[in-house]
Amino acid sequence: MLEAEQRLLMLIDNDPAQCRLVSALAGREGWRTIVVDDYETAIATLGTREGMQLSAIILDHSVPGDRACELVAEFKDRRPALPILMLTNSTSPQLAVEAMRAGAADYLVKPVSPDRMMQALRNTTTRERPQDELTPLSEKMPAQLDFDSMVGTAPPFRDALAKAAKAARGHGHVLIEGESGTGKEMLVRAMHAASPRAKTAFRMIHIAGVSANSLESQLFGHEKGAFPGAFDQQAGAFQQCDGGTLVLDEIDRLSLDVQDRLVSVLESGSVKPLGAQYGFKVDVRVIAASNLPLADMVSTGHFRAELLELLSRTAIELPPLRERDRDIGSLTRYFLYQIGQQPGLRPLGITSDALRLLGAFDWPGNVRQLQAVLFRAAVFSEGDALTAEDFPQLREIIGDSEPVRNGPVRESAGVQLYAKDGNLRPLEEIEADVIRLAIGHYRGRMTEVARRLGIGRSTLYRKLSDLGIDNAA
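Structure (tokenized):
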């Protein structure tokens, strides 16, 4: 009973539909929600008996508008330990910086997926492990849309980029697998930008953020009166993306019934809206992304083998950051450059001690988590370069272990020349990395790759075969 009383949430919002949604999501995590629709009432509520029992606040930026950050600061002044989450339509890094400096614990960009909202609420009351504070923020810096923006030289990563660059030139369906935060969405956008469909329709559906009841309608469309509440005809994503690209993110969350309908659409090239007596042909390229290995889900009966076969004729796997730890240095410098270009921030360097600290962490949230941690550190840093002291949560997790103080900085600005034992790597391994790097850099244009490497195209393909880079051929 005590735990239930402690899990009290105040939602400051004047949108009834959103209030119902957030309250329902919070209820799944055991929260009871107080809803207030203006900031004057919110301030007054803090001083009440119920207000003293609050465990968190969610503030919709639209309620106080330009005064949102002032309100966050006032809340923190009155209740310093109370976590505040800001909910906003804005993707402005400037607002993220101001909100965090005012004291916001997290920054959620609408529409927020249920999983993201629930994770943010969990983090407000989870005190057992300090790395919970390192969960990725939702601030969105302008996304780059080309393969050149995907930094890294680790062979599995360069293999994935080379394969994606080649696949981008075609029209077949693609499956991208990898843990959350490995860069699947960025890779999808880079593939679309480099594809023949770059100037055609593009839509991404985050399956985890859509209710099961409305997902079929969003995908396939519906006729007027097809179900209770279907007051008008609606075109589905397949119809809207005819001639273009449809991205199904977290396809591992798709129900078996919808999987069956998707198999039918992909096999026939024809989609039939709910309640319709007809179907129509569509030309849609599907790029599916999954956080989980779909082959494992097929073996347990949670994913259709037929759908996996249709999607995985081109399959790309993005490795987790812990398997490409030598990329941490180059990724860090790339992100710090990007962060330094944002309004309200400035370019920062980073010390060797800080790089060693970053290199010693396992990064369960992968590249996205690294970017978020650097963003947070840059917001509060007062020096010209980030030091180990700018990452207090990491220091608490890792401690002052010997590998952090004296270990090598796990980074690479280009191709890795040395093995972990300090000796030079074999020439064929270095050559393979150079070729992978070139294929990714020139987006799979093999004639250009061969020209830039100073070899003939036939020689390039022979080297691909000799070095075992079959998936880039």
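Residues 15 and 195 are 40 Å apart (CA to CA). The first strand starts at residue 8 and ends at 12.
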